[in-house]
Specification:
With 414 residues, the chain is α/β, with parallel strands linked by helices. It has helices at residues 16-22, 55-58, 67-77, 90-102, 114-132, 152-157, 182-188, 212-225, 246-250, 276-279, 295-308, 313-334, 361-370, 393-413; strands spanning 34-38, 41-44, 49-52, 107-111, 139-143, 174-177, 193-198, 201-202, 208-209, 228-232, 256-259, 270-274, 343-345, 348-352, 373-374, 376-377, 382-385. Bound molecules: pyridoxal-5'-phosphate. This is Acetylornithine aminotransferase.
Length: 414
């Protein structure tokens, strides 16, 4: 084949088939190609409409094509896209102020994804412990079935071995304990541990809320041993559980907090937040990334925070959550052969498949998708709902109608 850049690259027709021909097969995307979206409404290449209860995996929390975000990002686009970290910029300075004023943290580091935020957090924890206690304090404790991203370090820290198989040798000195298991936490968190990383609610692992007693015990064990407590709030944060971050709901303050996903509403940005004392270990040259906190990404995130600061925003998230929980509880009562007990918090919700339909969560979501409702899974056994936080009561009712119809069709076909 001739190597040349075709002149019509931006306009030529493409289909779902093109994915299978030219993209590295790391994903198995849905059969339709979404082309346009507004709020919770998505349309595909054929003009078919979908109601989006995924938010692009808990990302577009203020809805697709949000007019306030569009205006802010377009304005910044016409002003300047990127300068690099050889220069700072006004949006990132404002974003740093906003995040440190709104949280426990004194300092923010910006990057481009959740994995990068966790990579920064883990590297910082190692460096802090080495400087303060010596190189023996290097062990990282994480939880089984956790998810922290896909770099080699973050998959190794993550608690799902299917994501590390074939990538050995892996980074060393990482131990996994059972989530919500206080005894195994006590056994594992000893003086040689530099960091304990935990999702306050496990997202990818099945939407499993952390027990308050377990998370408190992690805090105490970290205090006792000098390990840093890292809360991975990449999925639970930025409003998803009805507070800016879930740590505020539970009243347990970490030493480092990581954020991404909804922070940019779809504009890639990640953040690591920490205290003055810990941040000092990331001195000039210790860590970095080309795009981190560039003006466009920082503007998107800043505008997201501004929207969420409006009075009543988080109250409405809680109200929408209560409605959806009530609907799903009733759904599980009406279809006990299909669904188990609904769980989660705010608008991060898991609906486990009942015993007889284990492994079939994806099949159920495909049935709902045919009927025009986009849903996620969290592992093979759990249907996950993560609608934009701006979901209306009418949209909640429509999703309930489709989930019921999908349950009927799914049972008929099974
Ligand atoms: C999605 C996710 C990540 C990884 O974020 P990326 O932006 O995909 O790198 C890390 N931790 C948690 C809890 C997540 O849900």
């Amino acid at each position: 084949m001739n190597a040349k850049l075709d002149s019509g690259v931006t306009t030529r027709p493409v289909t779902r088939q093109t994915f299978d021909e030219v993209l590295v097969p790391t994903y198995a995307p849905a059969n339709f190609v979404p082309v346009r979206a507004s709020g919770l409404d998505v349309w595909d290449q054929e003009g078919k409409h979908y109601l989006d209860f995924t938010s692009g995996i808990a990302v577009c929390s203020l809805g697709h094509s949000n007019p306030v975000l569009n205006a802010a990002v377009i304005k910044q686009m016409q002003t300047a896209w990127h300068f690099s970290n050889a220069y700072t910029n006004e949006p990132v300075l404002r974003l740093g102020l906003a995040l440190t004023e709104a949280t426990f943290a004194d300092r923010a580091f910006f990057c481009n994804s959740g994995a990068e935020a966790n990579e920064a957090a883990l590297k910082l924890a190692r460096k802090y412990a080495h400087a303060k206690f010596g190189p023996h304090k290097s062990r990282i404790v994480s939880c089984l079935s956790s998810f922290h991203g896909r770099t080699l370090f973050t998959v190794s820290v993550g608690g799902q071995s299917k994501y590390t198989e074939g990538f050995e040798p892996l980074p060393q000195d990482i131990n996994h304990i059972n989530y919500n298991d206080i005894e195994s936490a006590r056994a594992a968190i000893t003086d040689d541990v530099c960091a304990v990383i935990v999702e306050p609610i496990q997202g990818e692992g099945g939407v499993i809320p952390g027990d308050l007693a377990f998370l408190k015990e992690l805090r105490e064990l970290c205090n006792k041993t000098g390990a840093l407590l890292i809360f991975d709030e990449v999925q639970s944060g930025v409003g998803r559980t009805g507070a800016l971050f879930e740590y505020m709901n539970i009243g347990i303050t970490p030493d480092i907090l990581t954020s991404a996903k909804a922070l940019g509403n779809g504009f890639p940005i990640g953040a690591m937040l920490t205290t003055n004392e810990i941040a000092q270990q990331f001195n000039v040259g210790a860590h970095g990334t080309t795009y981190g906190g560039n003006p466009l990404a920082a503007t998107a995130a800043l505008t997201v925070l501004d929207e969420m600061s409006k009075p009543g925003f988080f109250d409405r998230v809680k109200e929408a959550s209560a409605r959806i929980f009530a609907n799903l509880e009733q759904l599980a009562v009406d279809y006990p052969q299909l669904f188990g007990k609904v769980r989660g918090k705010g608008l991060l919700i898991g609906l486990p498949m009942a015993e007889g339909y284990k492994g079939k969560a994806k099949d159920y979501t495909k049935t709902a998708e045919k009927l025009g409702l986009m849903l996620l899974v969290a592992g093979p056994d759990v249907v996950r709902l993560a609608p934009p936080l701006v979901v209306s009561d009418a949209q909640i009712a429509e999703a309930d109608r489709i989930m019921r119809q999908a349950a009927d069709e799914f049972l008929k076909a099974a």
